[in-house]
Amino acid sequence: MNIITALLIICFTTLIYFVMQIIYKKFPSPILVPIATSTAVIIIILFLSHHSYKFYMIGGNWIGSLLGPAVVAFAYPLYQHRKTLKDSFVSILTSVFAGTAAGLVSGIFLALWCGLDERIILSLAPKSVTSPVAMSISSLTGGIPALAAVYVMVAGISGAIFGPVILKKLNITHSIAVGIGLGTASHGIGTSKAAEYGELESAISSIAMTLSSIFTSILCPLLLHLLF
Amino acid sequence: MKIFFIICQTAILYGFFLLGEFIQGLLHISIPGSIIGMLILFSLLHVKWFRPRWIETGSHFLIKIMPLLFIPATVGAMDYLSLFRKYPSSLGIVFISTMIVIILSSAMSQRLNRNKLKKVVSEAEKEMSI
Questions:
Q1: d(Cα A155, Cα A46) in Å, to the nearest integer?
Q2: Which residue, of A209, B25, B36, B115, is most buried by count of CB atoms within 10 Å of its CB?
């Protein structure tokens, strides 16, 4: 019974995703990014049919379990672009470090300034890294891992929607710069957006995402320890 | 036939992910298993006997469908909708901070790389004048 439910949920999610992708191709507006529209449609359907997230995850877990190997798969484009990587390694390292530090400081201080609950601040701090990393960081620092994953999604989707608009406004066109911006701020979701620009952009974005995860896992607990 | 390759190669990539998870558990480091697995595979690709085509099709496939793989996690927001009603400012903070990160990191990288491009051009000019 569970297997049938799981299969149905997997097919349902995949179908919605492909329909949303077709809509996005017809109307390529930033707010119609497939990941955002698919999420919204699925949440609405679950609410209307009175099903819980736990029920959805019977099948959802199977889809999500491919995220790990998908991150591993970035080794291939990285290998293909190893020369670019070697040539601009220092500039990549510097920009990602600056972005990561700015993200942590701005997130934490804005939250303190708005008087948010300490547990919310701890969960929101690691928002710019991929969800498994953010969840393990927040459980280390005393935040709520599931909530951290939600803020990660907000950072990812808002970056995928508004990132390209901002990059265009600021006239940022260099492949490396585009990849760095999307990967540092919006991790895997930004990286899948970067793939729309090209292979080099997505490869650089996956490097940025990797580096920012490493920097965040070191800086975030340190910074929070100093403050709380 | 292509589906067969995709399934086998995804299994190989999954193996690297599990290896990464195992190493992470063993060493108790905060770098996630998937990234450790990626670094191992990236190093192996430089080894002569390891053929990049063993994982090429599977890698392309997984990267292409990556947004789909995130959907189950993003749907998780549904359990926290009441919290967003209670702390709507937290969403604004995450949004503003994300934009700060994009602007700062990409502008910095554009600048650093433009300088490098200029350097390459000026060196080429020097050679031309000689």
A1: 23
A2: A209
Residue where one domain finishes, among candidates A48, A65, A82: A65
Quick: pLDDT tens for B9-28.
999 999 999 999 999 889 88
Within 9-68 of B, beta carbons closer than 8 Å to A belong to 10, 13-14, 16-17, 20-21, 30-35, 37-39, 41-42, 45-46, 52, 55-56, 58-60, 62-68
Same domain assignment for residues A100 and A177:
yes
Interatomic CA distance for residues B114 and B103, integer angstroms: 16
Domain ranges, residue A19? 2-65
For the ranges A64-78, A133-147, B1-15, B84-98, the lowest mean pLDDT is seen at A133-147
Model confidence over A105-124: pLDDT tens digits? Answer: 999 999 999 999 899 999 99
Partners of residue B114 in chain A, C-beta under 8 Å: 174
User: How many domains does chain A divide into?
Assistant: 2
**Interface contact flag, A70 B69, Cβ < 8 Å:** yes
Pick among A72, A79, A140, A196 to test the B interface (most B CBs inside 10 A): A72
Please compute the mean of the pLDDT values over residues A160-185 and round it to a whole number: 94
Alpha carbon of B85: minimum distance to chain A alpha carbons (Å) = 13
Residues A96, A152 within the same domain: yes
In angstroms, rounded to a whole number, what is the distance separating the alpha carbons of residues A146 and A57?
14
